[in-house]
Amino acid sequence: MAIEDLTGEEACELVALYDADKIYGKRKVLQNLTLAVVAGQCTALVGKNGSGKSTLLRMLAGLTRPTSGRRWVRSEKLVTGYVPERFPPFSFTPAEFLLSAAEVRGIDKAAAEKEMNGFLEQLGMDRFVHVRMTQFSKGMLQKINLIQAMMGGPELLLLDEPLSGLDVKAQEDLLRVLVSLKRDGTAIVMSVHESTLIEQIADRVLLMKNGQVVQETRGDRLAAPAVTRIVLRGLDPAAVREISAHSGVANYEIRMDVCEMEAWSDSTDLIIREILDSGGSIVSVIPQEGMGIHLREWLQPSELLTEGDLYKCLP
Amino acid sequence: MFALARFLLRSYTRKHAYFAPLAASLIAMFLLYSYKPNPVMDSYAVTSVFLFIGAAWMGKTFLNHGSPQQEQLHIIHIGSMKKYLLSQLLALILPVVFCTVIFILFPILTHMFAEPVSFHMLLLAISGHLIMGLLGIMLSLFFQTAWMPNGARATAVLLIVVIISIGAKSIITLLPSWLAWLRWILPPVSPIMDGLLNTNKTFTFLEVWGFLGYGLMYFLAAGALYMYLSARRDART
């Protein structure tokens, strides 16, 4: 399936697959995939387990060869960062491992140390730089996994479930780092199960099923700002109008004894607080994500703001 | 490649998987030299066979010590499968050199020999040990998990090949003539051992060098075949 006009973006293409198949024994893991990865663009792969996301990432990384079809790379010296789904159980400290990895990549020791310390600090791992990784939790290992991939200024960053094991704070920290890398021109391809990352950073989402890309969602539909629908009651129309004057409120509608208010997601907390302070009560809070609704069944809701969590907070 | 070879060796030594093959090789050497005096080239021939077995064993544990994800990361970091494979080979050669030094120097320093070791003997012994070690490494390359995922079967077949390689001279004579070609696919452990044992007796120095040269050629050819096939394989998953 052709999923992108390859000629349009050829100038910035870093790696591309043409009619690529991958067959293990009798099982076709990837089928007839044509895909180009462009500098500065973030592609999210979504789909159920076994849909071929990890194999596709490995193929883009050059770790797996297509059984048929072709993989094209702009340069054999393309600097690639890769985050495998499971980080190997090294009996090294982060400093030993990351500096060795940087040395293998040919990065100057002083520059590598500076970069490593920066990433460790950004992800809150600076206190554990000399602790053996055998003592690390899954989340801590995942942070080291991410750092090893991001060091050396990769042109192509391939992430297999990057949020796996990370707490909410670490997810936010990682997001900031990824946004910065993307801004600097790094192409990112990631397999994800969480909507947070897609909303915030993805330029396109490829839905995979049985080794094929069955749907592509691009640009505007992902970039659309997210709103949260708040249903409230217990406030008179004047109080509702006063709150709705806030710039964080996109729209509101008064119906009988309840009011439906749409707030921009980044102002949701503030609006809810104002409603409660004014003596109103919350009936429901429903995040309306920016991406196409058809992708939702393949994703987990954002851990930062789940509908269920908000319901739990309500009286 | 040197940086990755160094990292691989550190990773291997921290898992202590080297201990069994190294200990077995050293115990065998100490047993051999438990009495004295000993003949020079005969002793070196035997310790070179110990090194062949030890290198095959160590090679297998070294090549299997990392997880598939570790292999994937190394390939990404170094930039190509070929460079990764060469780094592995580089890392494996170091223990062979280390063991060669021990096997050569120990009997000399502890005065285990009946006669002084001439320069030519020393050169032959060093070359013999190195080449036998390389042959052991080469054999292990084809029995690693990436090639034979069934570990128990790989160990069994590796042992059979090691045994047949050592006893090839006698075994081939028992086989029908139409199977005589088998001698050419087995690592030339038997002729090298035979050459070292009979240096200046049945074989001249030149002939023994010929056997060693054949061993080196065999290692290079098998190594080239391994690189050709392995560079085209997928990273382990």
Automatic annotation (TrEMBL), chain A:
Keyword terms, alphabetized: ATP-binding, Nucleotide-binding, Transport
Cross-referenced InterPro entries: AAA+_ATPase, ABC_transporter-like_ATP-bd, ABC_transporter-like_CS, ABC_Transporter_VariousFunc, P-loop_NTPase
Residue stretches making up the ABC transporter domain: 15-235
A Pfam family assignment: ABC_tran
SUPFAM superfamilies the record matches: P-loop containing nucleoside triphosphate hydrolases (SSF52540)
GO molecular function terms listed in the Swiss-Prot or TrEMBL record: ATP binding; ATP hydrolysis activity
UniProt-recorded name of the protein: ABC transporter ATP-binding protein
The organism of origin for this protein: Paenibacillus mangrovi
UniProt lineage: Bacteria, Bacillati, Bacillota, Bacilli, Bacillales
TrEMBL record, chain B:
Residue ranges of the TM segments: 16-35, 41-63, 84-109, 121-143, 155-181, 208-229
Domain of life of the organism encoding this protein: Bacteria
Record key words, sorted: Membrane, Transmembrane, Transmembrane helix
Name used for this protein in its record: Uncharacterized protein
